[in-house]
C-alpha cells in the first residue's frame, strides 16, 4: 500500500511495475487540483470531471514516457491536462466560456478559510470569473497555472514550452488586465 510520503516519481515507478494502488494514490493526491485547473480552462465542470479521468488514463498509458530529468511528475501531469483541455476547445470549434453559472458547486479547495460571508464570496467569485473570461485563453491559462494552481515558472515553462522570462512578463501584464477588469467591473480588454 502506498505511503503518504512516497514521492510521485516513486509511485509512478510502481505504476510502471503494474501496481494499480500506486495509480490510485497518484489520483487521490492530484485529481482535485487537476479538476480545478481543467474547470477553469474548459469552463464546464462535467467536461472537467471527464477530462480528469482521461488525464489519469493517459498517465497509465504513457507511464513509460515520463522522464524525471524533463521535469517533475506534477509538471508532466499538468501538461497532459493542458493538452487535453486544448483538444476539447479545438474540437468545440470556438472558445468556450470560462464562467460556470452561479450556484453551481465550486471545486474543493486545499485549504478553505471562511473569512467572508457566502454572499460576499459569491460576488467576488463572479467578478473574478467575469474578469478571467475577458482575458485571452493564453493569459487565462497562465493565471490558472501560476496563481490558482501554484506552479512555478519553471514548471509552467516546461508545460508550455515558453521561456520563463516571457512567462513572467505575460503574467505581469495579465495580472494588470485582471486587476483593471475587477476594479472596473468591465471587460479586461
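Q: What amino acid sequence fits the structure above?
A:
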Amino acid at each position: 500500500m502506498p505511503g503518504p510520503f512516497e514521492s510521485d516519481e516513486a509511485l509512478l515507478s510502481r505504476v510502471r511495475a503494474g501496481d494499480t494502488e500506486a495509480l490510485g494514490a497518484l489520483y487521490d493526491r492530484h485529481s482535485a487540483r487537476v479538476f480545478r485547473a481543467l474547470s477553469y480552462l474548459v469552463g464546464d465542470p462535467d467536461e472537467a470531471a471527464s477530462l480528469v479521468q482521461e488525464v489519469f488514463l493517459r498517465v497509465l498509458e504513457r507511464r513509460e514516457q515520463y522522464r524525471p530529468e524533463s521535469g517533475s511528475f506534477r509538471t508532466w501531469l499538468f501538461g497532459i491536462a493542458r493538452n487535453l483541455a486544448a483538444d476539447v476547445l479545438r474540437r468545440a470549434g470556438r472558445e468556450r466560456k470560462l464562467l460556470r453559472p452561479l450556484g453551481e458547486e465550486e471545486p474543493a479547495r486545499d485549504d478553505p478559510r471562511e473569512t467572508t460571508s457566502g454572499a460576499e464570496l459569491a460576488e467576488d467569485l463572479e467578478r473574478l470569473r467575469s474578469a478571467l473570461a475577458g482575458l485571452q485563453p493564453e493569459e487565462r491559462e497562465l493565471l490558472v497555472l501560476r496563481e490558482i494552481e501554484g506552479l512555478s515558472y519553471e514548471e509552467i515553462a516546461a508545460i508550455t514550452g515558453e521561456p520563463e522570462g516571457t512567462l513572467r512578463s505575460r503574467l505581469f501584464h495579465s495580472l494588470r488586465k485582471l486587476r483593471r477588469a475587477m476594479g472596473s467591473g468591465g471587460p479586461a480588454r
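Q: And what stands out in the fold?
A: The helical segments are 8-16, 20-42, 45-61, 73-92, 118-133, 137-148, 153-160, 164-184.
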